[in-house]
Structures are given as C-alpha cells and as structure tokens.
Amino acid sequence: MSSLERKREKHRPFTLNPDPRRKTSAEIVTEARHSLRTLRTQRPFTPRDDHRQLFGEISRAQDGRPPSTFSLYARNFEAPDSRPGSGTRLSPLEHKPRLPVAQDEDPDPVSPTAHPKPPSDPLELKRGARARLFRAGSLTTLPPVSRPTEELGTELGNGDRPASQEAEDESVVWNVKIFPLLQELESIAAGGSEDAVERLCDACDCLHGALAEQGMLGRRCRKRAGLLRALFCLIDLNSAQLNLQLAKLTLELNVSGKNLLNICKLIFKISRSESNDILFQNNSIIDSLLCVLRCEDVCVSAEAVLYCVGTLKFLSGNSALLRLLLAKDCVGVATLLIQKLHPLSQPDHTQFTTGGHIHVQLTATLRNLADLPESRPLFVSHGTLTELCLVLRHYHGDQDICTNIARVFSKLSSYSECCLVLAQTPGCYTLFIELLSKHQWKQDLVVRLLFTLGNLTSRSSEARKHLFTAEGCMSVLLGLYHTYHGRWDPPPAHTPRTPPARDTCNPRTPFLGWRESKDVLVKLVRVLANMSIHPAVGPTLAANADLIHYLLDTLELRSMQESEELLVNVAATINNLSFYQEDSSVVRDRGLTVAKLLLKLLLSSSMDGMLEATRVFGNLSQSREVCDFIIQNKVHQFVVTLLDSKSPEVCFSACGVLTNLALNPPSRTTLTQEGAHTKLADCLRDFGPVDWQLAGLVCQTLWNLTEEGGTETGPPSTMNNQEREALLEVLTLYLNEEDALQWTSGDDMRDFHRLCWELEFLPVAKRLMDRIQTKTD
C-alpha cells in the first residue's frame, strides 16, 4: 500500500454499512446490538374454567359424547364379574358348604327390584331410611364362617401350604376381623345418629386396613362378591365423604367392567363440586385414580378412563390439589396414558372418537400442570412434549385438543429447557404451519401457536431456518396477516361498537374483536422479526413485497395509543430487514416512505417506540435521500437530544444515526451547531467504564464529526478549545488500561470488559486522540 493510500485509510470516515468481512466477534456483537434483535411479548392469557364439565357447551358435537351429569344408586352396580382364581386346581367337592350364595360364588346380576328406591331426600339421614337400605342384600347375609368339614384336595396352593389350609385360615380371619367390621357398618347405618357418616368412614378405614393386613385386597378374597355388594349398598346414603371412602376401597378390590365405570363416574360426580375438593386432599383416592390410568386397558375400559381423567382435570383447577397431582407424578402417568392411547388415535379405529374425548380431559390436565415451574423438568424427562406433538398429528382437526396442547406449548416454550426439546422435535414446524392454516379463524389457538413459534425462533438460529423452510410457511403467515389485519376495525371513540369480523363460511367460528386481532398480529410480527435474523432468511424477507406492504400499512393505519406493542414490533421487524442492503431489498427501495411513517414513533411518548424508530433510522440513514429527510425535518435535533438520555441503548442508537449523518459535510456542520460534540463527550465520560462498545461507537461518531471540511455557506465543523480539552481529558483517562478497568469487579466481567476495551474502544480512541492532539498543536 502506498503512503498516500495509507494516509487515506488512516483518515477514512467510519460508516455503519454492513461489511461482508466481519473480522472479529466484537464487530458481530456490535452490529447485532443495533441491527438484529429478537422480540419479546407477553404470553396469551389463559382463562379459568369455572364450569366443571367434561366438555364446553359448544366445543364438541353433542351426539355421542358422554354426559357430565347423571345419577348413581346402589342398584346401578352389578355383582362382581368373576370369582378370583387361586392358581390351583381343586378336586371336586362331594357336597357344597352351607353358605349364602354371595359368600363363595358370584350371583347373577342384581335385579333392580332387589334394592328399594332411594329416599326422596337423599341427604336426610333418618333411621328408618337407613334401616330399609339393608333389608335386601344387607350385611347380615354374611354370617361368620365355620371351619369347612369337606376335604379339599391335596394339591398345593401359594407357597407350600395346602389350599384347604388357606381356606381355613381365611375363614378364621373373616370371622375374627372382617365380619365384625361389616356388622359395625350395618349397625351404624341403621342407627341414624348425627355422626353416622364420620363413623362409617372410620369403619371403612378399619375394614380397608384389615383387608390390606391380611392380603385380601385385589381379587384374593373368596368372599369378595358379598363384600362388594355390602359396600355398594352404602352408596345410597349419598354422602360425598363416605362415597369417596367406598370408592377407594372398591377400586382396591379390583372391580372391572360396569362396576369400574360406575365407581369412576361416582368419583367424577363428587369432584364436580369445588366444595368437595377438601375431601380429595384428605383422602388417598388420587393414588387409586392414577393406578387406574396406569393399569387399565384403555381399549376395554375407555369410558371409565375418561371419567377418571375428567376427575383429575377438575381437581387440577385447585392450586393445592394441582401440586399434589404433580408430587404424585401425574405428568408421568399422563404421558404413559397418551402412549397407550396411540392405537385408538388412528382415524379408522372404532374408538377414535372416545380416544379424542379422553385426550380433551388429559391435555386440559397437562395444561394446568404446566403452570407450575416444578413441572418443567418432568415434561422434559418424560418426553411429554414429543408425545403431545404426536397427539396433534392424530387429532389435528379437533380444536379442543389442539387448543389445550397449544396452551401447554405456549406456557413451557417460554423456558429454555422446554423450548430446546420442542425445537428439536422432528416436523414440529411443519405441523404448526398446518395447524395455523387449518384453524386460522380459531383465534385462541392461532395466537398461542404463534407465541410458541416466536419463543422457538427467539432462541435458536436453526429454528428460524427450519420454520422458514417448512412447506407453505410464508404463504400461511402472510395469509394470517391479511386475515387479521384486514378484519381489524377498532371502534371510534364515543360511538357504538360495530359487530366484529367472523368467518361466514364456518358458523362455529367465534366473532373476532379488534383486541383479539391485534394480539394475533403482535405475535405474528414477532415471528417474522425473529426469522429475519437468520442470514439466509433475512434477505428473502426483505425482498418480499407483500410482507413490506403489510408492515408499512400497519404503521400507517394504526396509532400508538391503541397499538403501541404492535407498532413497536413492526418497527423492530423493519429494523431487522433494513440491515440487509441487497439490491433486491424492498425496504431499501422504500426507505424514504419508511422514514416518514416512523416519525410518529420517534416523536411519541413511548420510550420503546422511540428507541425502535431510532434504530431503524440508524440503518436507513446510510441512504443520502433519508439523510436529507432527517435534516430537512429536523429529526437530527431530536436525535442529538437523545444523547442526554440515561439509557445506554438509547445513546447507542442515536450514535448510529449521527455516525451516518456526519459523513455528509453539510450535515456535519449542522450537528456541530447543535452541540453534538459536547453531548458525545458527556456520553463517553458517563458510559465508557460500563459499556466499551458504546464508548467505541461514540469515538467513531466523533471521528466523523471532526473530519476536515465544511460547506461553502457555513463554517467548518470544528470543536472549540474547551471542548477539545475536555475530550482529551476523558480519552487520556480511558486509554490507560488500569484506570479504564478500575470500576469493573469480578474476574469474568473484568476479562469481558478488557476484551471489549481492546477491540471496540482502544483502536478508534487512539486515532481520535491523535487527530485532536494534532489539531491542538
């Protein structure tokens, strides 16, 4: 390089033009700071479901869906389905023992006439009513059992004990421990005392403990049939507290078929009333419900599973019970159930619809569990997010399921560990785009899917590329922009509100208010802004005429008073897109139009709006046309005033604009007259020790401002002696490493600040100091 070229290089003005040769990481950090940024927004509000019902009133087809309200009485239950097998073949008996049928064999299904009708007031615990409950099929049909006299075979049962010995031992246990408790139950029920329910619950607890102690739970008790019949009779007392005790004991006796269904419906009925929530806190019935979900075959007991999960959904609306469910690994059980439901999720399966009903309850429960911070590691470790994506694929047409899962994703994707798992789920981006296309009028679903995509693209460069390359991505996103922007008509002040937009082709589509439409646009623009950060995506978006048209149309038609967040997001998106200065850029071609529309943000009372507009001007001011607009409309005066801000970000953005303006000699003189030198020196003094990137940019701006040359009609852009001395004092202080880094604490931060000081500040500060000293001399 010749001496003349070296001299020109030494005195070359600084510009903020994007340089394809990014030599240092610090340059990339600096450019990203004032050019390309991700956006944040609030998570969509999830309304509380105050009505404890299986399904919403209009959410699903009424035909064929299970009811939320029903009545249950003892007569609705059947005798147990089969006698438990002992695992041992017994020799034929010469004669049968003299015991009631209910003791050793399962009788025929109980006739409806075997039990009286319930009293007209079920809550009335009168002595006579209780007595009538036990006349037919009462506990007295289970007398103490004497030792059997017949020989039972010589084959061995469990262990090395003969089956006859087991039967004899069980008879003794029955007579000594179980039968007296059954008599006590009958006596309490027939007595009609005021504390009958409490005493019955205590007796049931004792019965449960005795059966558990003797290993007679499950199907191992030979008198299980009569025992269940006796317990079913107590249901007609219609006590929620007692019925939960009975349900817990009944489930541990491994009922199946209709009895399992009715027990699950009984628990579900109790859980519909919030006043009964306390009963579930003081009872281990939740463990029994989770056991049903873990162990039952959903193809055989689908309806029972449905009411079981419906109960958990209701209980998860209570904050105390929600934490209890989480502690009992409800997330893990729910994930296992989703896996068991996959065979039912095939459209040609006979129980596809029932599987969908279950998924509605299950995903609603997970939606509530996702509110707890402690649930996040469980959603990750159990692979729940991936399983939910499979459910979305199977039930992509079910708005209830899709909305519940979208709510789960919108909650969890706000956290890095969950966001990473979801971002790495194969095909999730294509799936989300398909759902947005299919349910474009379902505002609460659309806004949550967009919020989730915004979270994914805010954290991962790969997510930005994967989303952009997903089939139909831009077509669907621009279609949503057209739908929600075109249908949004905020009501004028003091005038009756006109009916909001609605999809006339779909009568089930809810009306769209302008607030709902605005919320969708906020989330949608955020996705576009985040995608544009990717270097392979940004130039394509900047060249998309339809996208730029929608963004500029939004800036023109919306006001800061009604749509501050939306306009700030639009400005941030334009800022990201204006970073790309390719010839194909529509933003570059329409830079002057953008500048005019951004004035209302720059001059607004919103600090966020002002900051975003300043950032855009920092990129657009690379155009001579835009620079002239800034000077002509006195925007430069406002930008210089921003240097007085106490915010480093605001000062950084203002310096970006001034650096470009100072490249033009007439503008340089104008800025000098506005006192830009003094304000920049103050910025350097105030922010240098804590932000060396900003300090370096201030020095770049001062370098351009002190460039030789004025105008034919004005004085040269020079500083007076007082300004030079003040600036030299600051530069001398900060060019000394020990003095410059004395305010930094902590080894890690000191290393970072030293790196920024060496790369961002030191080179340009030395050049600036040499220039000022030369002019002083």
UniProtKB/TrEMBL annotation:
- Compositional bias of type Basic and acidic residues: which residue ranges? 19-34
Q: Which SMART domains match?
A: ARM
Give the span(s) annotated as Disordered.
1-124, 136-167
What the entry lists under InterPro entries is as follows: ARM-like (IPR011989), ARM-type_fold (IPR016024), Armadillo (IPR000225), ARMC2 (IPR038905)
The membrane spanning regions, by residue number, are none
A Gene Ontology biological process noted in the UniProt record is:
sperm axoneme assembly
User: Which PANTHER family does its entry note?
Assistant: ARMADILLO REPEAT CONTAINING 2, ARMADILLO REPEAT-CONTAINING PROTEIN 2
Report the protein name in the record.
Armadillo repeat-containing protein 2
Gene name linked to the record: armc2
